[in-house]
Design goal:
- The strands form four sheets. A seven-stranded mixed beta sheet has the order 3-11-10-9-8-4-5, sandwiched between helices. It has a four-stranded antiparallel beta sheet with strand order 12-13-15-14, with helices on one face. The protein has a two-stranded antiparallel ribbon with strand order 1-2.
- A hairpin with a 7-residue loop joins strand 12 and strand 13.
- Helix 1 (34-48) crosses helix 9 (277-289) and helix 10 (291-317) packs parallel to helix 12 (384-404).
- It is α/β, with parallel strands linked by helices.
- The chain is built from twelve helices and 15 strands.
- It has helices spanning 34-48, 63-74, 91-97, 114-123, 148-161, 192-198, 257-264, 267-272, 277-289, 291-317, 341-351, 384-404; strands at residues 11-13, 22-24, 57-60, 80-84, 101-105, 107-108, 111-112, 131-134, 164-168, 234-239, 251-255, 321-322, 330-334, 356-357, 374-378.
């Protein structure tokens, strides 16, 4: 918009309280608008129940964008990335699009098997990767949570072998454990830099920003040489997609300040003036109004009800094996012996029920396809009645397949 000569970027008043009355219509800092970042730090610290470093965030257009930015900053074509298997099937395309080699990490019913991974790395059976991608909380597709001891072990291995963990935390806040039950810490909360910062000894070795912005401070004045930790091994990616609206295309990266700064130097962010400047300030206003908390609580309650309805119906059918999630979007279902997803699809279509075939969640191509006896079911955004009916129809489709064997 045209501005008087010598004026700053265009703004539009009328959104937010008096402290945050202007929505930016100009370029933002690489990492995002100061107003959104400040609001996000406060809200995430409260939502997570653990502090978020004020210079650890980079605004993104969602988790997919965040993963791509992290790969661009922290890897080179030909590098290896390990994925837990089964994996989020659309993530593979992001990594191969960056010309990374993808391979599966040892995984069991609880998630990535860090003991097996440690043994394979030590023996050379698995090449030391540049990156490891995991969804530790309410995973996609399995709906499981990585146990605390494995979380800590994975972070330790990252420090030992020099790889970076890409922790997809998009479902972390969508949990409904028993009242009073503590939420498992995110991997970044086990990162040595975060622990040192909490102890008052973390120094950020960042270049001074040319014109203000989120990277102008130099760190804790209380740090001593024996406690200085200047880098991290975990990059957390998350977004408002699952907790507010997918169409917003707004998310964030959280990492040690030096890693966050490195990621924020991506040419797209530098040239484009950050990501989602206008949208992020609108969402910041939603956060400050308290509406984000209301929506999140409502989603958790609705998803918990839907999950229970689906799992109860699957259990009643008597032909499925599955883990009952305590959060997220999905149930990972093992089909009866002899029933494959290929055989099930036409019968499921006939009964009017759909699912994601487990074979799509394999990391590499195999013959026969990996997880060909598994399916992913989604309980989000469906009524309990429709979920119960879907489970009944799915059981009927399975019975058709078994009758044809």
């Amino acid at each position: 918009l045209p501005q008087p000569e010598g004026s700053g970027p265009a703004t539009s008043a009328g959104v937010g309280d008096s402290e945050h009355a202007a929505v930016p219509l100009g370029y933002a800092d690489n990492a995002g608008t100061p107003g959104f970042l400040k609001t996000a730090v406060r809200w995430l610290s409260a939502a997570y129940g653990s502090a978020v470093h004020p210079r650890s965030l980079v605004t993104t257009n969602g988790v997919s964008h965040g993963l791509d930015l992290a790969c661009a900053a922290l890897s080179s074509p030909g590098d290896l990335i390990l994925l837990e298997e089964p994996c989020y099937f659309l993530a593979k395309q992001i990594f191969t699009g960056r010309h990374l080699r993808v391979a599966g990490a040892p995984t069991d019913a609880s998630g990535i098997d860090t003991t097996a991974l440690a043994a394979a790395l030590a023996s050379g059976a698995i090449e030391v990767p540049t990156l490891v991608y995991v969804i530790p909380s309410h995973s996609n597709p399995c709906g499981t949570e990585l146990p605390l001891d494995r979380r800590a072990h994975l972070v330790k291995l990252a420090g030992q072998y020099g790889f970076t963990i890409l922790s997809d935390d998009v479902y972390h806040l969508l949990g409904w454990s028993a009242p009073g039950a503590p939420r498992l810490p995110r991997l970044i909360e086990l990162d040595p830099w975060w622990i040192a910062w909490q102890a008052g000894g973390c120094v950020d070795t960042l270049p001074a920003a040319e014109s203000g912005g989120p990277y102008t401070e130099t760190g804790s004045a209380e740090a001593t040489p024996s406690t200085v930790v200047t880098t991290g091994v975990v990059v957390s990616v998350s977004s408002f997609t699952k907790i507010l609206s997918p169409a917003l295309r707004l998310g964030w990266i959280e990492a040690a300040p030096d890693l966050a700064h490195r990621i924020a130097q991506n040419g797209v962010l530098v040239s484009g003036g950050g990501a989602a400047a206008f949208t992020s300030e609108v969402v910041a206003d939603v956060i400050r109004s308290g509406d984000q908390d209301v929506v999140l609580a409502q989603l958790c309650a609705e998803f918990a009800t839907g999950c229970a309805a689906l799992c109860d119906a699957l259990e009643a059918a008597g032909c499925f094996t599955f883990h009952r999630p305590q959060g997220g979007y999905f149930v990972w279902v093992a089909l009866p012996d002899g029933v494959t997803t290929e055989a099930l699809v036409p019968h499921a279509n006939k009964h009017g029920v759909t699912f994601l075939s487990g074979s799509r969640c394999g990391v590499t191509t195999a013959d026969p396809p990996a997880f060909n006896h598994h399916i992913r079911l989604c309980f989000a955004y469906e009524t309990p009645e429709r979920l119960k009916k879907g489970a009944t129809l799915l059981a009927a489709a399975v019975a058709d397949v078994k009758a044809a064997l």
